[in-house]
Design goal:
By secondary structure, the protein is of the alpha/beta class. It has two domains: about 10-225 and about 295-335, Luciferase-like domain (TIM Barrel), CATH 3.20.20; about 230-290, no CATH class. It is about 45% helix and about 15% strand. The chain has 14 helices and twelve strands. The protein has helices spanning about 20-35, 50-60, 75-90, 105, 120-135, 170-180, 190-205, 230-245, 250-255, 260-270, 275-280, 285-290, 295-305, 325-335, and strands spanning about 10, 40, 65, 70, 95-100, 140, 145-150, 165, 180-185, 215-225, 290-295, 315-320. The strands form two sheets. It has an eight-stranded parallel beta barrel with strand order 1-2-3-5-8-9-10-12, surrounded by eight helices. It has a two-stranded antiparallel ribbon with strand order 6-7. Helix 2 (about 50-60) links the parallel strand 2 and strand 3. Helix 3 (about 75-90) packs across helix 5 (about 120-135). The longest helix is centred in the last third of the chain and has 18 residues, at about 230-245. The protein starts with 7 loop residues before the first strand and ends with a helix. The mean pLDDT is about 95.
């Protein structure tokens, strides 16, 4: 990977609704003051990432910014390229782009688009965005997209931002290794992460690329509170929601990693409206295999084991969806870079 030293520490801004854009900006400003390398912002069905990242870029000085992730269905590849060029300009070169297909719950349920050929669409989007950012005329003849005759109407970025792809399954991670500049990993145990890193290397080999040039960013669910019981419940609720309410991707990710019985039980209980039973189906072993939740001391101790995984370039501290702003800040402080 890009740096043999210890992984950098990023902040993954909360996916759940926040009181205001100002609150998200304040999280990014706090992360910057604490020494985090980059602030990643997800985009689901709340505030859009572009406007929010612009506000963050204008009101911070050094911290990197990035999308994790922007889906490849709600914007055209050319528009994503234009947006990346503009965000790179307003942030003075601090952008990194994270792209991915998301899932049917967002793409079909929110955007009203057909969730068709997600891997192919991701690949072509990465390729078109790279062409747009080069500043050269965009000539592209893909299976989904065909573009011809135009180029970026402003100067391309002096420093072209990296383009990462998100993925949980073997083929999506292989795609990241073959076509993107990096991979965003999530919902993985340590053993599962090592398995997917092998897929990334295989993709790099297929693309005749050096895997050491690819940047691996792990999104790690974290909640560090003096109230250990509260922290553990927040983490359980977060996991149960994603496995139970967000389609089959997260359930399948758990099944691939040896938690097939628990994954099915969590999803089934949630689908039947038994949220407490879904939370109860999450064992301590599973909870601790997928993230860190507990007292600040516990979390700092367990965090080190994730940073020690060979092949990870950045560990991004992410937060459970039910965490309050003060709990997010407390976790960022507890896990701040030393």
């Amino acid at each position: 990977m890009t740096d043999p030293a210890a992984p950098t520490r990023d902040a993954f801004l909360p996916v759940a609704a926040q009181p205001s854009v100002d609150q998200l900006v304040e999280f990014a400003r706090e992360a910057e003051q604490l020494g985090y390398e980059r602030a990643w912002l997800p985009e689901t069905w709340g505030r859009d990432a572009v406007t929010t990242l612009t506000a963050i870029a204008e009101r911070t000085e050094e911290i990197g910014i990035g999308t994790s992730i922007a889906n490849v269905y709600s914007r055209s590849p050319a528009l994503i390229g234009q947006t990346a060029a503009t965000l790179q300009e307003v942030s003075d070169g601090r952008l990194r782009v994270g792209l991915g297909p998301s899932g049917p719950a967002v793409v079909e349920g929110w955007h009203g688009a057909d969730y068709d050929r997600p891997l192919r669409r991701t690949r072509e989007t990465v390729e078109v965005v790279r062409l747009v950012l080069s500043g050269d005329p965009v000539e592209y003849d893909g299976e989904i997209f065909t573009l011809s005759g135009l180029r970026l109407r402003c100067d391309p970025p002096e420093t072209v931002p990296g383009i990462d792809a998100a993925g949980m399954g073997p083929k999506s991670v292989e795609l990241a290794g073959r076509f993107a500049d990096g991979w965003h990993a999530l919902m993985l145990t340590k053993a599962g992460l090592r398995d997917r890193l092998a897929d990334l290397k295989r993709g790099a080999k297929l693309g005749d690329r050096d895997p050491d040039e690819l940047r691996v960013t792990l999104s790690l669910p974290c909640i560090a509170l003096d109230d250990r019981e509260r922290a553990r419940r927040l983490a359980r609720n977060h996991l149960a929601f994603y496995v139970g309410a967000m389609g089959t991707f997260y359930r399948e990710a758990l099944e691939r990693q040896g938690y097939d019985e628990e994954a099915v039980e969590i999803a089934s209980e949630w689908a039947n409206g038994n949220q407490e039973a879904a939370l109860a189906a999450i064992s301590d072993e599973l909870l601790d295999d997928l993230g860190i939740a507990g007292t600040p001391e516990e979390c700092r101790e367990h965090y080190a084991a994730w940073e020690a995984i060979d092949g990870v370039d950045a560990v991004s501290v992410s937060f459970p969806r039910g965490a309050e702003p003060d709990e997010i800040s407390a976790t960022m402080r507890a896990l701040a870079p030393e």
